[in-house]
DNA sequence: CCGTATTCTTGGATGCCGTCTAACAATACA
DNA sequence: TGTATTGTTAGACGGCATCCAAGAATACGG
């Protein structure tokens, strides 16, 4: 978080600058019609530089949430066999805790303008699958059979991601999506976390 | 389904031939390391021809299931507001009804050998998301609020796809995954299909 | 003030995917 | 024999993502 002067050439751009340029273009021309070269041109750097800041074009949209999801995956992976629903819910709440409007929220809100509906289904599905997998594995360690665990995981992951989508569509303005996710997780709080035995 | 002699040049290959060549190479070298050119070379046709048979490399694996999913999406879209859980379950059962071992089953079973674990999570997530969306929309039409509907949809879609995965991992030998999916759908039969009111 | 290590930028080359087109080959049929 | 139809093919294209080597801009120690 520091900004200590370090040796070496100073950066010619930043994630924020590039993301801003990218989002502008996505809104103007659509996501598919905007190439990485377009983005860097508007940002005033070379195409090569883009990949010093983002690992892919879609990373512009998803890096913020992905970082949070990665944290959650780590936390879920370290849950022991006596974990309960509340432990999982706590971890999942952290994913969106204080989540502020960012390129992803913008994209979710303006999906049609950006021509992103198909792409967003796929990308959201991937994140949901990742989270679902981690929750399912925690459930398995708690003694739940494979398929029920997968369903439980999907329900939890969907609670998070669909809440995020709804929050973004509503304008992503008032605060963060914490409350929505909390309510959504409450809906599935009574699912049989420890009831569906193995075999 | 006929094979009537039609005018025009006869085909030089077939989906089956190409899929076979592709699967061999996926097993030998891995999915990523196998290019479309590799596949067509082994199959003895030109690279251009590949796209006469499949729309993409991953389509080799997924076209079989995707066709079934498309049918289900159509059926789900035509459900009226008085649809119940059984109607949805019936449609979802059709997705896997008599599903036979195919490239996808092979890939699910040999995911690690093909270096496909990451790719499969993404691709499965996409199919799951599609199905979940359609179920969720049906639920919304039945009066369920948005987020509960999304969760319900995810649970149903995951019941289908995780059953398919388990079936494939077990060898995809004995019969089709019908029974597994039936059981999985039974697990969520009691979810509040008509209980969670709007607002 | 000068060299050096460090950090970053840049252009270019590369391989792949997926799209498209125009030319060509092989068939049925009248 | 010719014509319509259907497939195949080579090639070009644009895009993404990776890699590398050269160079530019800085801090710092002497």
What does this molecule look like?
2 copies of one chain form a homodimer. In chain A, 64% of the residues lie in helices and 0% in strands. Chain A has helices at residues 15-29, 36-43, 47-53, 59-77, 85-96, 103-109, 117-141, 146-169, 178-187. In chain A, α4 runs antiparallel to α5, α5 (85-96) runs parallel beside α8 and α5 packs antiparallel against α9 (178-187). The radius of gyration of chain A is 19 Å and the shape is globular. The first copy, chain A, starts with 14 loop residues before the first helix and ends in a 12-residue tail after the last helix. The mean pLDDT of chain A is 93. Chain A binds chain B through residues 121-122, 124-126, 128-130, 132-133, 146-148, 150-151, 153-155, 157-159, 162-163, 166, 180, 183-184, 187-188, 196, and chain B through 121-122, 124-126, 128-130, 132-133, 146-148, 150-151, 153-155, 157-159, 162-163, 166, 180, 183-184, 187-188, 196. Chain A binds a DNA duplex (30 and 30 nucleotides) through residues 5-13, 35-37, 45-49, 51-52, 55-57.
